[in-house]
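Here is a typical protein record:
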Amino acid sequence: MFLVLSYDIEDDKRRVKVAQKLEDYGTRVQFSVFECILDENKTKELLTDISELIKEGDSFRCYCLCEGCLKKIKVYGATEITREQEVYII
């Protein structure tokens, strides 16, 4: 599942914790935006972890994109859309 995650966190310490947690799951594509490719269990785990950090006044958004939507993404500039990494087990 391809996720686009964004946040607006009021408190500096909490903002750092949220960013560090998201780095465990995906790729930072802008200052407060991450892209992740996760299965359903990892997605639930991520959202549980984040929900424990978010407080009143904060904002966190998770957009799940289907395969059809992924084909319509347009990226301009020096970056590319996050892709699944090839893994080789030897």
